[in-house]
Amino acid sequence: MNIHLRNRKPFAALSPVAMRAYLRAHGWTEANRLGDRALVFTREVGEETFEILVPVRETLGDYVARMAEAVHLLALVEQRPETEILADLGSTGCDIVRVRVPETADDGTIGLADGIALYTHTRDLILAAACSAEQPRAVYSNRQSQGVQQYLNKVRLGPTEHGGSVATLLSPVDPAVGPVNQTELRPDRSTDPYERAVTKMLVRALKAASEAVTETITTDRFGAFERRVGEGLSANLCEALAGLVDTVGPVDISVTWAQVRPLHGEEASAPARFGFSATAGPLLREAARQFRSREPLIDGLSEDGTDGVYLLQPSGISSKTNIAALNAFEAYMSANNAFIEAALAGDARKDFTVVSSEIHETMLSRLMSALMEQPEYGSTQTQPVSSPITPKKTTKTTT
After folding, report:
1. 0.70 exceeded by pTM
2. Could you tell me the residue ranges of all domains in the chain?
3. CA distances from 1 to 52, 65, 145, 161, 392 (A)
4. ∠286-289-290 over CA atoms, to 5°?
């Protein structure tokens, strides 16, 4: 087949991994291998058998021409434009998040302000899921971890789609590596890469939000949301969903999994599409307010420019903590929804202050026991403190 290439770039950019995954997902069978140069895929359509040669190394002299032939043949078999085939191949290595707004103008367009809100709140939705993938919490601050920031930098805007206004985000995912024809030896899915963990968490959180809205309508209780924090439900996610519904109307949110890393079993058949009507907006806003009222958190920077966190003390005065000190007790803070401040003044080996108004004596005892296990604090003497707690300082004693 002779193809005249006017623009080589789209075909040169195609990945052999993406092409192979696309063919397998669309009914093509790997029929042969030509050494380390190419794979041969075939598919029967009616009484005719089609064959596609997929080069496996970009350095081959005819790589671009072979990819162009493959796209041309796929367009013939699927009866679709080559531009659509190229777009699908480009997203084969990505989980695709679509936020669809069914109610648009007669010509299928959307206002500029609504369009900006659509993409802004969609970004916030992904951001909340990325934070929950690291550790589920009821509230997240405005400062993200380095891992979350790096992930957001990888996410791309997808091409526009017909059928209402659709915000499409492409979340790149590393391909799965392992035997394909032996289902019992599939790669271990329990240790997904972080990018896949984010989109899985997004689906779990959307499901949790949908269920919580329904339950709240019938029970009128915030507990429907609070119980689902572990599923990725947070004030941030509720605010993003409420923002979408309030500004652009009812939305339909779906996730399509990357073909280079397909799901299997129950995960593959589980719903990954959820709708939120205008009724959900006020409930989601109130849930976000309730979450935040329980965990007031203010961001800041320490004097040396590193990340810091300010936690409100009972006196109303905030004080600076180093994020490194907080990390040691992050799980404890999240589990007990407490106000904990690790204030390390001067020599970190000499001073340690705990300020809280809502920690029970047993919780404080656990916290201080964990602290005493650290080598630099091993000789610090502390006394049990009853709740409510007033600011106290313990000083390392010398013998």
Report:
1. no
2. 9-90, 94-294, 298-395
3. 11, 10, 51, 31, 81
4. 90
